[in-house]
Design a protein that fits this description.
This protein is mainly beta and 153 residues long. The chain has helices at residues 84-87, 111-126; strands at residues 3-6, 12-16, 23-27, 31-40, 51-54, 57-60, 68-71, 74-82, 106-109, 142-145. The strands form three sheets. It has a four-stranded antiparallel sheet, with no helix packed on it. A hairpin with a 2-residue loop joins strand 5 (51-54) and strand 6. The radius of gyration is 19 Å and the shape is elongated. The two termini are 36 Å apart.
């Protein structure tokens, strides 16, 4: 099966035929990881946010990747792409009141306001406004200490 790897801005970087040892593993509260191995006749550097679509899901690189030279005409690639669940674990929940972007704060608010704050932090991390707050059960105000908390926490 041919897979296409794109740059973070959607430009095709390469098409590959991965080896049979590739895996896609999805675990509860552990995320979704796609591993691929292949060889190419050329060296192509891959960057953070380069992505591949597999089985109707998108997976991203979370660190730069440099292939290993296997011979004078072959480069070895062994990649790990991560699903969306893993990506939000990179973003801190930030209090941007007064433009401070402070990761250490406590907030007393309704459940919906807490969710809205987390969604806002995810959107800021991705540089988008794609994420939206869905239905949130009404409830009393609660206090959450966001002392360096990541969005997935």
């Amino acid at each position: 099966m041919e897979l296409k790897i794109y740059s973070g801005d959607g430009v095709l970087k390469l098409s590959v035929e991965p080896r049979d040892n590739g895996t896609q593993v999805e675990e509860i509260q552990a995320g979704n990881v796609l591993t691929l191995s292949f060889t190419m006749p050329e060296r192509i550097f891959l960057e953070v946010n380069d992505y591949v679509d597999f089985m109707e899901r998108r997976y991203w690189l979370t660190e730069k990747y440099r292939p290993v030279q296997k011979s004078t005409v072959e480069w070895e690639y062994s990649l790990k792409f991560y699903g969306l669940e893993n990506l939000i674990s990179r973003f801190l929940v930030l209090n941007d009141t007064d433009g401070a972007n402070e990761p250490v704060f406590a907030l007393t608010a309704s459940p919906r306001e807490h969710v809205a704050l987390i969604v806002k932090s995810i959107n800021a991390g991705f540089g988008t406004n794609d994420w939206k707050v869905g239905t949130v059960e009404a409830g009393d105000n609660i206090v959450v200490d966001y002392h360096g908390k990541y969005c997935n926490e």
